[in-house]
What does this fold into?
Amino acid sequence: MPDAAGPSGGRTGDGRDGGTGEVPAGGDDGGGETLFLGVSARLSDPREEPVPSTRGSVCVACGVGGVDDDGYCEHCGHAQPRQRDHQEKELEGVAAVSDRGLRHHRNEDAFAVAAASLPDGTPAVAAVVCDGVSTAYRPDDASAAASAAGSESLLTALERGAGAQDAMRGALLAAFDAVSALAEEGERPGERPRNNAPACTCVSAVVTGPLLTVGWIGDSRAYWIPDDRSRPPSRLTEDDSWAARMVAAGLMSEAEAYADERAHAITGWLGADAVEVDPHVAAFQPDEPGVIVVCTDGLWNYAESAAEMAEVVPADARSRPLAGARALLGVALDGGGHDNVTVAVLPFPAAVSRAGFPPA
It folds into this structure.
C-alpha cells in the first residue's frame, strides 16, 4: 500500500515508515477501499475510572516511607506508579496492553476494546488505540477522550445496522469531536498555560464476520499477521507523516526521508487545531486465520515493517491475545522503551463463542 500524503507541516511525532505486503482487491460493505486479505460488552471510559488514593500506603521503591497526597514518597521522594502507567484489558476475542515505557514520566496513550452483536447476531469485536501528542496540551486526556468516544460511536453504529466502513468513519469523527471539546475546557490546577489544543492520533480495527475494517488518523498503525508465517504479512495503514508524504510524492527515497529531522512530524491528528479532518478507512477480507496488531509508534518503532512485526508476534497470539500483547510490550521495553507503548491484538476470525459476552 502506498504511503499516505497529508497537508504540509504538522506536529512533532515519533513515527517512522515501514514496509507493507500486497493484498488483492475484493468486495465492499459501503464506501471506501475494500481489499481481500446480542449484547454489548464495553469498557468504562478511562477518564471516569476512579483514581485510588496513595495516601498512607508504603513506597514501592524504598518500602519504608509513606506516600503523600501528590503521590511521592515522604522518605525517598520516589514518584509512585499512577493508574495509567500500566493497563491491561481482555475480552473474548480481543486484548490490549498499555505501558508508560522506560523514559516518559506519564502514559499519554489510551485504548478501548469492545465486543457487541450486530442486528443479525454476528459478533463485532473492536480495538481503538490512541497516542497523545506530547507537544500538545493535555495529551493524556486527549487520547482517553478519543478512545472512549471512538469505541462508543463505533459499537453503537454497528448495533444499529450501519456498515462497518460508515461506522468506522463516524467513530473517527466522534473521536475528533471529543478531543476538540477539550480545548474549550479550562486549564487543570498546576498545569502550565496551554500553547496549543489537546491532540492525539487514533487507529481502530473491528472484525465483523468475514470482514476486517480499519480506520486511522495520524501515525499509529494496524498490521495483518497470518498464522502461516510463510504467507506475507501486511501493514494495513498509511502514516500521516512528513516522511511518508515525501516518499509518496517521489521527492525522497525512504532512507533519505527518514534520515531527515522533519521525518517524525505528523500531518494528521485529532484536535481543535488540526489542519483538516481526513479519516482513512479501509476494509479487508482475509482468506486465512491470523491476528490484527493495532499499536502506537512506541511499539512499531522497534518492529517497523510488516515482516519485522511478524517476527515478534508470538505464534500462539490468535489463541492467547493477552499473552501476545504482553510479549509485544516486552519487545518495546527490551528495545529501550523510549516512548509510551500500547498494543491491541484481535484474532481473526473473531474468537467469540457467544456474541458480545466477555469471558468469565
In short: Residues 139-159 form the longest helix (21 residues). Residues 204 and 311 are 22 Å apart (CA to CA). Helices lie at 139-159, 164-182, 242-248, 254-259, 297-300, 306-312, 321-334. The mean pLDDT is 83.
